[in-house]
Amino acid sequence: MRTPPRGRSTAQLLADFGHDLPTKPEPDRPGKEPYLFHESPRRGRRRPGRGWSPARTPVVQYRMTSDQAAAWWPFIANPPLPPTGAQIGIDELSGGSFYADPLGWVLDDTVPVTNPNVITFGKPGGGKSTNTKNFATLMMDFGYKVFVLGDPKDEYEPLCRAFGVQPFAVGPGMSARINPLDFGPLGDGWDTLDRIEAQRRAGIIFRRWLTLIRGLVGSQFVGEQRVPFGPTDARVVEAALAQLTGYLDGHHTLHVTTIPALWQLLANPTDQLVTECRYASTRQFLDETRLLRDALGQLVTGALAGLFDAPTTIAVDWTAPIQSFSLSRLEPLGDEAMGIALTCLSSWGRAMREIKAPGDLRINIRDEMWKQMRLGLEAVKSLDADMRFSRRDGEIQFVVGHKPGDMLTVGESTSAATAIAKELLNLADLKILHGQDPSVARELADLLELGPIAEHLMADWATQRKGRALWCVGKQIYKVQTVLHPAAAAFTYTNQAIDGAR
């Protein structure tokens, strides 16, 4: 038997180098149609450009549902969100428009969010403030009103003036005075209330005041420790406020009081107050409340002097599309004074919104909130309460920060303040993450359990162009490029101070 020759033929050799010998075409077989599809070998056809592989590539197979696939490969395009609310920009994973509607998402069972709060992080200059103002402006078309609870850098003044609103300026020598111990609408018509309704409203008012005083007192230091505020201090403050307003005596009309008036009463207590607080004598009262009085006195004569220590002198038009309080004039006084101002404005703003008409939807912008949180545990609790009640009140709490370290440095790593600050991230189901330095992007990815792909996008993709951000809607992540209308670009611009450097 003749052994067939080993090796490749000349035709095969030429084929390997891209040259095919001409062949005689075979006649078509009658009665059969030509094949449209030809099965290729597993290793491909051994020709240039045909994808031939000398070894078999192992293929790992996975079986899962489409909703599970988004968790393993999160930057495969997530299901699109409903086209409701503000049209923010472009979803770069799907190529479609991206809409933001926090309260609408809460009402939609197909969107994995349970609260409408927003927290945004981003390094300066990455479009964080512009995106915040753009979101607020677009949501006004859907009936929302914007309330800026303290503008430390006066960034929202151009936006206010664009809507014909003059922001209130708070600072030394300014005419605007805000009393954080205002009753708000709960004090209206007090003489017509029955006993049960009067008790209900009084409970709300005094709890709010007690939260404020606890936060202000806790912001002061004795050495390296913050001033404690225990149950006895709370009883003393509540009894003093009840006496100052006339509630303790059952008056039909309540009197507006102030923090300096509270301090003066504690320094010169009446016999009625001493008895109500269960002290044996005035001397014991003064001895036991010395630390409380000194902390309040430091506030009245220091950071609060001339700012939040007198009756309110402004009238706010709550029907206007936006209202803002400019605090830039407090910048020379330091971060503590700014934090105290933000705390007072937060309490006052909450009082003004205790009673409102159904459908009165608001976006409360809280810029530089870390300055308030660094006042201590009670200040963090105050913000925590606002965010927890946002769903009930029909409000969106929009917290603006630079990096998570701003929130997590409110105390020791094991302190209650730090623990509550971490929980605040869970009270905001919508997180907007702009460009960050690699170390901060890593911190955010670990804290929010986003993974290495999100970390890389924050440190690379989001830093390459302003307005880029990852929008975390519950567990769904979207790559969004903000697109500004030319009119919006004019009053969201924040680089006026450095334009002359060009």
Estimate the mean pLDDT confidence.
84
Q: State the CATH architecture of the largest domain.
A: 3-Layer(aba) Sandwich
| Regions with little confidence, pLDDT below 50 for 5+ residues | none
Number of self-contained structural domains: 2
Structural class: alpha/beta
Query: How much is the radius of gyration in Å?
Result: 32 Å
How would you write the strand order of the largest sheet?
2-1-13-12-11-3-10-9-4-8-5
Helix content: 25-40%
Name the CATH homologous superfamily of the largest domain: P-loop containing nucleotide triphosphate hydrolases
N-to-C span: 90 Å
Q: What fraction of the residues are assigned to beta strands by DSSP?
A: 5-15%
Cα shape: elongated
Oligomer category: single chain
What is the CATH topology classification name of the largest domain? Rossmann fold
The main pleated sheet reads as: 11 strands, mixed
Strand tally: 13
Tally of DSSP helical segments: 20
The level 1 CATH classification of the largest domain is Alpha Beta
How are the secondary structure elements laid out?
Elements: H1 10-16, H2 66-72, E1 86-91, E2 97-100, H3 102-107, E3 118-121, H4 128-139, E4 145-151, H5 157-162, E5 168-169, H6 195-218, E6 221-222, E7 225-226, H7 231-245, H8 259-267, H9 271-276, H10 282-288, H11 290-301, E8 322-326, H12 335-352, E9 362-366, H13 370-373, H14 377-388, H15 390-393, E10 395-401, H16 405-408, H17 416-426, E11 430-433, H18 438-448, H19 452-459, E12 468-473, E13 476-482, H20 486-491
Parallel strand pairs: 3-10, 3-11, 4-8, 4-9, 5-8, 9-10
Antiparallel strand pairs: 1-2, 1-13, 6-7, 11-12, 12-13
Helix pairs in contact: 6-7, 6-12, 6-14, 7-8, 8-11, 12-14, 14-17, 18-19
